[in-house]
Amino acid sequence: MATNDAGDGSGHTISIEIDPGVDVAAVLGSIADLDVDGTRVSDVRDEARSAVSVDPGEMTAVQRRTLLRAVEAGYYADPREATLTDLAAEFDVSKSAVSQRLRSAETTLVRRVVEEMDHEGSSDSTAALDLTE
Q1: What is the Cα–Cα distance from 111 to 87, expressed in whole angstroms?
Q2: Which of 37, 38, 43, 52 is the right S-S partner for 132, CB 3.0 to 4.6 Å?
Q3: Is the CB of residue 44 less than 8 Å from the CB of residue 18?
Q4: Is pLDDT larger for residue 25 or for residue 96?
Q5: Predicted TM-score of the model (pTM)
């Protein structure tokens, strides 16, 4: 199910409901292909989940592009569908450069999630990803 809601006037909200068997990484890759200014991804099946806001400005444009392409290519899939070598060839840089870009982006995301978990006062909190610009 998809909805488009102007909401508070600050932008549009699009909700996409997918079946549990759908490859979420592929859906995220498709969203990234839309080239939207900000993306908020959350799992609404569990209302107890919190949203973690990540300002895209906390990552460089190169880190964001590399992270989005890594997700799209299946770098984070299990089993992994793309390697650092594959991504390095696409970006025409070394494997260590791709690794550093991903590690920096991942560090930003993990720190924000942990900050939110700490803020909620629960070490077993789950968090959705909220990328807003």
Answers
A1: 24
A2: 38
A3: no
A4: 96
A5: 0.55
